[in-house]
Design goal:
Blueprint: H1 2-22, H2 25-42, H3 47-53, H4 58-86, H5 89-110, E1 114-115, E2 118-119, H6 121-132, H7 135-149, H8 154-179, H9 183-201, H10 214-217, H11 226-247, H12 249-255, H13 263-287, H14 290-307, H15 314-342, H16 348-377, H17 379-408
Helix pairs in contact: 2-7, 2-8, 2-9, 4-5, 4-6, 4-16, 5-6, 5-7, 5-9, 7-16, 8-13, 11-16, 11-17, 13-15, 14-15, 14-17, 16-17
């Protein structure tokens, strides 16, 4: 019995080694990019807590968030077009990540420095957003392009980002009582260094391609793709309320009698719930189209928002955040691939960053209106309104496919099951 058991264990280990050896090296390289990027990015999620600790109201925090998003509207397509013109997302990504780490680290140092009656930190924050906001879209573009070209499983790569995000958030939450929220800004600056090293080390195939002129790029082609335009409109309508769910979470935590010291725990838990969905994404894409999966994610967001009217305490809040994690994982696994499928080959980075820019527009509207609505009606009623807006966005997206088919004369992607990459 002992020999058979030992023999079985040895066979299992050999099978495991063989399966791991068959995974392409680029799968692990880009998994590392996702892990390190989201590991660092999690440390930048404490801006609301930092501003709240300095006595700012929800409307003031919303105004700063809107300024960041306004900068992002310009920055995202700008850096995307630079990437497509150079035929290299990697080169631009190295630059913006480095400048993001530098400017974000300066925020607490400049918070108490007065300039024309304002805090210099409130100037540094939106300035740094010119580099920081587009990074997510650029990482998505780089990884998704390589996953599709090399037929890598994007879901199994992207899940490492959720793991990194969860690890950093859980760690920060454990250290927060003695760490101090202002130190999260310095942690972000240090955390981007290994990410820069890995991105620099990964070979860039794009160096072999000729740089395009703006005329050759024909950016206007994106706006003649009806399904892409409808997706951008849907993204604004959806992200306007969804992004505010994150922005104003510390206020919801206070309302539900949960300490904001546990902010990282909740963010980490939400990220962990994205992982099983991303693991299943290949199977889900073989059975359902990307638009159907995004509609399902929107439905989970609606239920989440409605549930906030009835909860108190940490455990009910975590239970509802389960819905947010599952919806987030589904949307992460679908949205970038959907944009990639709609964009011409030479405009894929521009399309990804344009989608990110649209999300910034949604941030502006959501943060400006959300802050004032929350102050006026209370946090629970605010989240109920968010649920109604998400439902409206989902209905618009569903209706857009019939209109897109009529305008373009091409089959609707609503029922098109995609590859599992």
């Amino acid at each position: 019995m002992g020999e058979r058991k030992g023999s079985g264990s040895a066979q299992w280990l050999r099978t495991l080694r063989r399966n791991l050896a068959e995974i392409p090296a680029d799968h692990w390289r880009f998994s590392g990019v996702e892990f390190l990027y989201w590991f660092a990015w999690a440390a930048s999620g404490y801006l609301t807590v930092f501003l709240q600790s300095r006595g700012m109201s929800a409307s003031e925090v919303g105004l700063i968030g809107a300024l960041n998003s306004a900068v992002g509207i310009v920055a995202a397509p700008f850096w995307g077009m630079v990437s497509d013109r150079l035929r290299s997302v990697r080169k631009v990504l190295l630059l913006v990540i480095a400048l993001s780490g530098l400017t974000w680290s300066l925020t607490p140092l400049t918070a108490d420095v007065p300039v024309f009656g304002l805090s210099l930190g409130l100037i540094v924050i939106p300035f740094g957003s010119f580099f920081r906001v587009p990074t997510g879209s650029l990482v998505d573009s780089w990884v998704v392009q390589n996953a599709n070209r090399q037929r890598l499983n994007y879901g199994s790569i992207r899940l490492w980002g959720s793991i990194g995000y969860a690890v950093m958030n859980m760690s920060l939450s454990a250290m927060m009582p003695w760490l101090g929220v202002e130190n999260t800004f310095y942690i972000f600056g240090v955390s981007v260094l290994p990410l820069l090293g890995l991105c620099y080390w990964i070979k860039d195939d794009a160096v072999k391609l000729k740089t395009l002129s703006l005329r050759q790029m024909q950016v206007g082609r994106l706006f003649r793709e009806y399904y892409f335009v409808f997706y951008l409109l849907f993204s604004v309508m959806l992200n306007m309320p969804v992004n505010t769910i994150f922005t104003f979470l510390p206020y919801l935590m206070e309302e539900t009698q949960v300490s904001t010291d546990l902010f990282g725990v909740i963010m980490g838990y939400k990220a962990l719930l994205e992982i099983p969905v991303l693991l299943l994404m290949a199977r889900l894409r073989r059975r359902y189209s990307l638009p159907k999966l995004m509609l399902a994610a929107a439905g989970l967001y609606v239920v989440e928002c409605l549930c906030y009217s009835f909860i108190n305490g940490l455990w009910p809040l975590l239970a509802v955040q389960t819905l947010h994690g599952l919806a987030g994982g589904m949307f992460i696994g679908c949205s970038s691939n959907y944009v990639y499928s709609l964009a011409p080959d030479h405009l894929k980075a521009t399309a990804q960053t344009l989608a990110g820019s649209v999300s910034s527009l949604a941030d502006i509207i959501g943060n400006l209106l959300g802050g004032y609505l929350l102050d006026a009606m209370g946090v629970r009623s605010f989240y109920t309104v968010c649920g109604g807006l998400i439902l409206g966005a989902a209905l618009f997206f569903l209706a857009s496919f019939a209109l897109g088919a009529r305008l373009s004369g091409r089959p609707s992607p609503l029922h098109a099951k995609g590859p599992a990459a």
